[in-house]
Amino acid sequence: MSGKYAFTKSLKEVRFLFCQTGEQSAATRSFLTRAYPIMKKNNPSTPIMLREAAGTLPKIYARYEYGQEKCQTLEGLSDKQIEEAVTSLVKNA
Questions:
Q1: What keyword terms does UniProt attach to this protein (predicted)?
Q2: Is the pTM of this model over 0.85?
Q3: Contact 26, 72 (CB under 8 A)
Q4: Where is 33: in which H helix or E strand?
Q5: Distance, CA of 73 to CA of 27 (rounded, Å)
Q6: What's the burial of 43, exposed, middle or buried (CB within 10 Å: 0-12/13-18/19+)?
Q7: pLDDT score of 93
Q8: 62 pairs with which residues across the strands?
Q9: Of 56, 86, 55, which is closest to residue 71 (Cα–Cα)?
Q10: Sign of the CA dihedral 28, 61, 43, 85?
Q11: Pairwise CA distance, residues 49 & 77, whole Å
């Protein structure tokens, strides 16, 4: 699992947006509880921001060099699907 979260060098920031209590964000919260410590340990200098706001649908944003940014919705995805989505964003610029 640890190699899965070795970020590409061009990745400058990762942001997770989700609701603290909403059912649509339950899988995202579960994923972050499990995977955040591993991601941070493998990438100590890359900011990984967790933004919680009531009623927010779960999304991930990845910001790369030169201001390029990609967004992917995590709504309706399982923990495993979220892991695949995050892996694809943090490995590909």
A1: Electron transport, Membrane, Mitochondrion, Mitochondrion inner membrane, Respiratory chain, Transport
A2: yes
A3: no
A4: helix 26-42
A5: 12
A6: middle
A7: 60
A8: 14, 70
A9: 86
A10: positive
A11: 20
Per-residue pLDDT of the chain (93 residues; tens, 9 = 90+): 456 678 889 999 999 999 999 999 999 999 999 999 999 999 999 999 999 999 999 999 999 999 899 999 999 999 999 999 999 998 876
Count the neighbouring beta carbons within 10 Å of the beta carbon of residue 20.
11
CA-nearest of 24, 35, 23 to 85 is: 35
State the pLDDT at residue 81: 95
- pLDDT for 1 equals 42
Distance CA 32, CA 35 (A): 5
**What tokens were used for 26?**
């339950």
Integer CA distances (angstroms), 37 to 32, 44, 68, 70, in order: 8, 10, 26, 23
Fill in the amino acid letter for 26. A
